[in-house]
């Protein structure tokens, strides 16, 4: 245990030195590789940037097959939160967010008899997401605060292939708020169109894929102008290595490293 703690301390010092050099130069070259304690091919670290300036990094620690711990640090290497993702038989059971100076947030996931997600409970039953199914497909998703319905969504599917067609959003009093329509193309491109309750187009999100992986996502307003865009880069093993998101004048970038 002492050797492990010393190893972690040395890694922290190395990261401090790295932050002072590579990050100050706004460079993503020569990132510190993951240590040898993790499983080969598993994600170990994410470096985050905003407009080419360092935002900090996320350290991932996989403990067995059931627990993933994500520690979020700012650019000054200060821990800002820890997310613990616990699973069982490949299914998420508990997700907790822990903060140094704030109360923790927790959500528990519950499944029905056919192992489909049925309920997500936030906190001590502060709010609940209740999911109903029809013929094995998600039909209704209700959001409750306390015991009162806040809003709900209804899902519709194409009859020929069973793919998702529309999602309708309603108020607690059954008034239509908005809806989303899904279109699929043989080119590997998928599209989601967003409409108001009176059927006016609000914008479209287009997903482009290669080799079964998302290569880019772009959001277009009603004039067809791209206002948001995300690009994804993968390595030869199909691991995501870079993600860049552009929203107006802001550019968010993440660089991912693996064991």
Brief characterization of the structure:
This protein has one helix spanning 2-23; strands at residues 43-50, 53-63, 67-73, 79-88, 91-98, 105-111, 117-122, 127-134, 137-145, 148-157, 164-171, 176-184, 189-196, 201-210, 213-220, 226-234, 240-247, 250-258. It is mostly beta strands. It has an 18-stranded antiparallel β-barrel.
Shape category:
globular
Q: Provide the succession of SSEs.
A: HEEEEEEEEEEEEEEEEEE
Strand content: over 45%
SS element count, helices:
1
Low-pLDDT windows of residues: 1-28
The largest pleated sheet is described as:
18 strands, antiparallel, barrel
Average pLDDT rating: 89
The secondary structure category is mainly beta
| Strand segment tally | 18
Distance between the termini: 21 Å
Evaluate the radius of gyration.
22 Å
Overall helicity: under 10%
Structure commentary:
This protein has 259 residues and is mainly beta. The protein is 8% helix and 59% strand. β16 and β17 (240-247) form a beta hairpin. The two termini are 21 Å apart. The model is unreliable at 1-28 (pLDDT under 50).
